[in-house]
Write a structure and sequence with these properties.
alpha+beta, elongated, seven-stranded antiparallel beta sheet
């Protein structure tokens, strides 16, 4: 009697696993934390001190985010004394999909050893989510990073990280880029998706160029992440089905062998 009950339990259990209904990302994944933002700082110390600092975040967590900041601190002075910074982001959190583009740039230009200031900008897509069921993921990403390779007064970098996939740009002077295309299966658990870009320019690096110093930097990221519940993929469902059938058949055979 117990053996028959156990076998029926096994069959019922595997039927629940195989034929469980599929859900969207918002049903199977709980969005835990949204840290997206764009940030720009621009400081000018030539003639008069001026400092500008601003940060933008989504109106509500997990909402569509479309922001752009641009600051030019060269107004009112000669064009050769320039401090500029800008940052943008356009990102969406959709059912089963995350998409985003971000940029950051910084520029400073000085002549004759006059210190004029510096600028810094960054664009960040930072999201934590929790998967309650196994999911397949498919990630594509592209990065760029550029800064004036003739000076040490500027730098830029960009990166994208998710689960076991990552790509970076900005590890050497001059222009660098990177791309990523990866897919895999995620076990239930908490995961962080991070796309990051930043640029900085420091005006008047006198030790590099005593007469003219033009520092500029820029970086960007773009990504497309798709999540699919493993239960909705025919191949995965078929594999689970045959594994379940095999276990249902093998368990009684193993018990019969032991009795013999």
């Amino acid at each position: 009697m117990c053996k028959m009950t156990c076998r029926r339990f096994h069959l019922a259990f595997f039927a629940l696993v195989i034929f469980a209904p599929a859900h969207s990302l918002f049903a199977d994944a709980m969005l835990l934390l949204d840290n997206r933002q764009v940030h720009v700082e621009a400081k000018r110390s030539f003639t008069t001190f001026y400092y500008w600092n601003e940060t933008a975040t989504p109106v509500t967590p997990f909402a569509n985010f479309d922001a752009a900041f641009a600051k030019d601190n060269s107004r009112g002075v000669e064009p050769r004394y320039i401090v500029r910074g800008s940052a943008t982001q356009d990102s969406e959190i959709l059912p089963t999909r995350l998409t985003g583009n971000g940029t950051a740039s910084a520029e400073s230009f000085a002549t004759f050893g006059i210190p004029i200031g510096d600028s810094f900008s960054t664009s960040i897509f930072d999201l934590w989510l929790n998967l309650s069921t196994p999911h397949f993921y498919d990630l594509t990403a592209g990065l760029t990073a550029f800064w004036d390779r003739f000076t040490s007064g500027a730098f830029a970098n960009a990166s994208v990280e998710f689960a076991d996939a990552s790509v970076r740009a900005g590890t050497a002077y001059g222009g660098t880029s990177g791309s990523l295309q990866k897919s895999g299966l995620l076990a239930p658990g908490s995961y962080r998706f991070l796309a990051f870009t930043q640029a900085k320019s420091v005006g008047n690096r006198l030790e590099d160029h005593p007469v003219v110093d033009d520092n500029s930097a820029s970086a960007s990221f773009s990504f497309d992440l798709r999540l699919t519940d493993a239960a909705t993929v025919p191949e995965a469902t078929s594999t689970l089905f045959f594994l379940a059938i095999g276990m249902v058949v093998l368990i009684p055979l193993a018990q019969r062998t032991r009795r013999q």
